[in-house]
Amino acid sequence: MTDDTLIFTDLSAATMAEGDVAYGLIEDAAIAVQDGAISWVGPQAHLPATYHALPRTSLNGRLVTPGLVDCHTHIVHGGNRATEFEMRLKGASYEEVARAGGGIVSTVSATRSASQADMVASALPRLDALLAEGVSVVEIKSGYGLDIETELRMLRAARALATERNVRVVTSFLGAHAVPAEYAGQAEAYIDTVCIPALRAAHAEGLVDAVDGFCEGIAFTPSQIARVFDVAQTLDLPVKLHTEQLSNLGGAKLAASYGALSADHIEYLDDAGVAAMAKAGTVAVVLPGAFYTLRETQVPPLDALRTHQVPIALATDCNPGSSPLTSLLLSMNMACTLFRMTPEEALAGVTRNAARALGLRDCGTIAPDTRADLAVWDVNHPAELSYRIGFNPLFSRIVKGVPCPR
Ligand SMILES: [Zn+2]
């Protein structure tokens, strides 16, 4: 026992432990924390004698979950698309929006003209909104620079956010997000002269935790994505993929063949894709915010994923175009209401399975030897986290065992 051992008592713990049923709920629980990691969790009556003399912090019956993990975001970007949103609702066509400089082109040009400090400043309110709901890990992608310098600057800004706030940031290189206007019709040339060199440079600077792409008719073909993934493999970087969002090009199967951490969106995923993901241990990341914003009707194949025991995660996909959403709690509610996920699946989707989608094994559950990143809630039952709409019952966030201000 060291002096900085902390004991939290009088709580109920949704441990989300692997293989457990019903949230792995422990009533009248206690959690011991040592050197920033959980050293013991269980019924308070069974707290080992070695802890008895140490000071305790009562949580007065509150629910404790693992700190939430938002495993798919684009929170670093320039500008926003509110005027485009308004134009479209006033009846403008996509062509008219594009002619007015809207669409991804507007985000790319706003991002290119932003300094690293600008990017950090504009991302902070989005990050703060996530943290206010108990998030302790955020994945952040590049992908709005689409030139070497801006892709690197986005990743540097993402990493810098972790020095501004008490949060763990995981970065994904998403150079294969879209073909920029200056390479229109030349996706292959873009991959060769921008995307792959940017990936190598970002990796050399230690800025890449995983390599992502967008496999879709409006983005890149499976064979173009494979060329980027081949480079990722030689750099020993894990991959993940935006795929099967609007059509089925077999991207999930391709990603699984590279042992991908996750395949994301996957509304149009077919049985072969599900089976390939199950075999590779690839996590399915569903993104109900984009589904909602785009008013999609094709729901991800939840039953097939359950049958094949593919772990399901969910995330905000916070981005300026298709999911300007900074609430993981609302994502949980949307996943339940729109996709018919259960509240237990939704909570696993933003804790244990989200951690897995990032390749992290030391968070996402409340278990010995994991980081003591916890969320404390003013609720009686974990289903309340998915049930309410636009309500935040967070009492406090605990990061590495230390309660921190919202
Ligand atoms: Zn995305």
Automatic annotation (TrEMBL):
Cofactor note: Binds 1 zinc or iron ion per subunit.
SUPFAM superfamilies per record: Composite domain of metallo-dependent hydrolases, Metallo-dependent hydrolases
Binding site for Fe(3+): H72, H74, H242, D317
InterPro entries: Amidohydro-rel (IPR006680), HutI (IPR005920), Metal-dep_hydrolase_composite (IPR011059), Metal_Hydrolase (IPR032466)
MF annotations from Gene Ontology: imidazolonepropionase activity; iron ion binding; zinc ion binding
UniProt GO BP: L-histidine catabolic process to glutamate and formamide
EC numbers, comma separated: 3.5.2.7
Binding site for N-formimidoyl-L-glutamate: Y144, N319, G321
Pathway of action: Amino-acid degradation; L-histidine degradation into L-glutamate; N-formimidoyl-L-glutamate from L-histidine: step 3/3
UniProt catalytic activity: 4-imidazolone-5-propanoate + H2O = N-formimidoyl-L-glutamate
Enzyme class: hydrolase
Amino acids binding 4-imidazolone-5-propanoate: R81, Y144, H177, Q245, S322
Binding-site positions, Zn(2+): H72, H74, H242, D317
Location within or outside the cell: Cytoplasm
Domain Amidohydrolase-related residues, every copy: 63-382
Statement: the UniProt record of this protein carries the keyword Cytoplasm: yes
Entry keyword annotation includes Metal-binding: yes
Cofactor section: Zn(2+); Fe(3+)
Keywords: Cytoplasm, Histidine metabolism, Hydrolase, Iron, Metal-binding, Zinc
Gene Ontology cellular-component annotations: cytoplasm
UniProt-listed NCBIfam families: hutI
Role noted for this protein: Catalyzes the hydrolytic cleavage of the carbon-nitrogen bond in imidazolone-5-propanoate to yield N-formimidoyl-L-glutamate. It is the third step in the universal histidine degradation pathway.
Family: Belongs to the metallo-dependent hydrolases superfamily. HutI family.
HAMAP family xref list: HutI
Name the record gives this protein: Imidazolonepropionase
